[in-house]
From TrEMBL:
Biased composition (Low complexity): 14-25
Keyword Lipoprotein belongs to the record: no
Residue stretches making up the Enoyl reductase (ER) domain: 45-357
Single GO MF annotation: NADPH binding
Annotated organism of origin: Kribbella italica
Name of the protein: NADPH:quinone reductase-like Zn-dependent oxidoreductase
Family annotation (InterPro entries): ADH-like_N, ER, GroES-like_sf, NAD(P)-bd_dom_sf
Length: 360
């Protein structure tokens, strides 16, 4: 799944393992040298942003095939707002939310990773069917872990996993972008929208990108966007004023409320990828394909998993960020104790780019 994912569980539950550290609160960590308790954000069920609190819970023990990560930072994602607000289905409560985490391997019983190795983890059920990244330690399947080597600071690295995975998967799996094509990004100042623009420019595309706020047009230009557009509800008209036949590809991050106009902005045999729901509108009532889809325009979708972002691709992107060749916009970095303020900012849409929490 991705940061604008449909509000449902982003992975199947794991037999015999549910919310490590919460279901057995009387069991302390058995690992020498590791504290028996840790700070974590625990959701007892749907709550308001102001009700988010940091609690002390036991440090979880990883079974075989799982890895314990000492979390240094994590990015905030729209799906975590859906979970907190009670819009998600299939989630287990109580739960430590967070569909991604960045840090170092603390314990890997199966030997898949070395202790101290720098890693990121994302999705695969994190923060939905088992405890996620809003904690000092998290236990995740080894299959959800990607190794990385970088001198980037933890907050910057913490902004990247889910944002880059969703942007990369949308562009390459969802749209199969090619150099020389034109791309429309609907919802361009979101963290995924900003990352998608940068990745598309690196691939050699001409990029159109939208914002509802005219004051943010310069932000889009700073990301390399060729045609920043103010979203007045008629983006198709603005796009076709530049490209009469429409764009080759379009990435829909706002929701089904803007999808028809995005489809109209796309050329015959072009493709629209539905990835995000920033508007919290994700269904199409009484969907009639012939009446809904313009002739010859293809509609696909992207939900994704960590496996869609190969380790070598993630390392390449991280290296580009470190070299200053891939500008990633971080709106603000919060300490864990300010998780309520961070969620409020995410919910109200006040951020431009990624919100990050640094474990101090």
């Amino acid at each position: 799944m991705n940061e604008n994912e449909l509000p449902s569980a982003d992975g199947a539950s794991t037999p015999g393992l549910a919310t490590p550290g919460l279901t057995t609160p009387d069991v302390a960590s058995a690992t020498p040298g590791v504290a028996s308790s840790m700070r974590a954000v625990v959701l007892p069920g749907p709550v308001a942003a102001a009700d988010l609190r940091v609690s002390l819970v036991p440090v979880p023990e990883p079974p075989a095939g799982w890895v314990r990560i000492k979390v240094e930072a994590f990015g905030l994602n729209r799906s975590e707002y859906h979970l907190r607000a009670g819009l998600a289905t299939g989630a287990v409560f109580p739960i430590i939310p967070g569909i991604e985490a960045t840090g170092r391997v603390d314990l890997a019983p199966g030997g898949e990773f070395a202790v101290g190795q720098q890693v990121v983890a994302m999705m695969g059920g994190m923060g939905r069917t088992y405890d996620g990244g809003y904690a000092e330690y998290t236990v995740v399947p080894a299959s959800s872990v990607i190794p990385v080597e970088t001198t980037l600071d933890w907050a910057t690295l913490g902004a990247l996993p889910e944002m880059l995975q969703t942007a990369h998967g949308s562009l390459y799996t969802g749209l199969d972008i090619q150099p020389g094509q034109s791309l429309l990004i609907r919802g361009g100042t979101s963290s995924v929208g900003a990352a998608a623009a940068v990745l598309a420019k690196e691939r050699g595309l001409t990029v159109f990108s939208t914002t509802r706020n005219p004051d943010r047009l310069e932000t889009l230009r700073s990301l390399g966007v060729d045609h920043p557009l103010v979203d007045d509800g008629n983006i198709s008209g603005q796009v076709r004023a530049v490209l009469r036949s429409g764009v080759d590809a379009a990435l829909e991050l706002v929701g089904t409320n803007t999808l028809p106009d995005t489809l109209r902005a796309t050329r015959v045999h072009g493709t629209v990828c539905f990835t995000g729901m920033l508007s919290d509108t994700w269904t199409i009532p009484d969907f009639y394909p012939i009446g809904y889809l313009p002739n010859g325009v293809r509609l696909t979708a992207y939900g994704g998993e960590s496996s869609d972002l190969p380790p070598e691709a993630f390392q390449h992107y991280v290296d580009l960020v470190a070299a200053g060749r891939l500008p990633i916009r971080i709106d603000r970095v919060f300490p864990l104790d300010e998780i309520a303020a961070a969620h409020h900012l995410m919910e109200t849409g006040g951020a431009i780019g990624k919100l990050v929490v640094r474990i101090d």
